[in-house]
Amino acid sequence: xxxxxxxLPAARGTDQxxxxxxxxxxxxxTASRRSATLSGGAAPWLFLTPYLVLFLAFVVGPAIxxxxxxxxxxxxxxxxxxxxxxxxxxxxxxxxxxxxxxFWMSMKATGIFxxxxxxxxxxxxxxVALVMNSRFRGRNLFRAIYFxxxxxxxxxxxxLWRFLLxxxxxxxxxLLGGLGLxxxxxxxxxxxxxxxALVGVTVWWTLGFNAVIYLAGLQDIPAELYxxxxxxxxxxxxxxxxxxxxxxxxxxxxxxxxxxxxxANMFGQSYLMTxxxxxxxxxxxxxxxxxxxxxxxxxxxxxxxxxxxxxxLMLLSVAVFWLxxxxxx
Length: 329
Known about the structure:
Low-confidence stretches: 1-13
Helix content: over 70%
Oligomer: single chain
CATH architecture of the domain at 95-323: Orthogonal Bundle
Order of helices and strands: HHHHHHHHHHHHHH
Distance between the termini: 79 Å
CATH topology of the domain at 95-323: MetI-like fold
Strand content: under 5%
């Protein structure tokens, strides 16, 4: 007679071992493995949950709500907020609209500010960082002096320089007069002097941040690369071109992008120093958007302007990343 009960002792042996392990450890090994797998997959999300909640509440949510506002004739002082579709965006490109000319003049003002401030905030901090990376007595004091203005708020910086640059009682004009130079320059009420003031104050205020970022990048470049360049007969300028700049490529991309975004969002200096004068020539895009939304209560128009500015900055971001991309030899 044939039977199929031969494998049963092995199965009983396996069950017996599992029972012995369960009795000795007090837990089911299969359940333990399943619990470890689940906890390993859930742990990262648990750590990310606080950030994701804040990100959704203060970034994604307001962005979606802002786009919804841009599609409505939104006046927060009135109960009715009718849907207008893309009319708020179309008005920005229609010369018949009352918002067309002032908005594009504010975009022009933003472009002028970026054109002069961004190159200076890329080059001057790099030169300062090269000096700060050298070895000399008082190096830490030198670093502190250049970074100190950055810790000040925009209100403090703008009010301070508004008094220093005052055409009548300002210290700057008094010093220029003492040197035999014109002492009646209207730094805050006439162009191009107003642009010189806004760009100069911004560079003085923020170059410390970029310099520190550059300094961190310089300290990450291996010293062996400079030694190899020196052995190959490279001078300082050649080492800077072929070692320093390639080593700073990621840092340059970051500093360039951050500087462009910060310059495009310039508001406090213009608002507190020049009030957009003369006329609205120094009223930047952010300044005009704030006026449109918070003073004229045209939140729909202001939201549409904000999203148009966002698109421009996104295109600039793409251009920067393309410019600093890794190129194959």
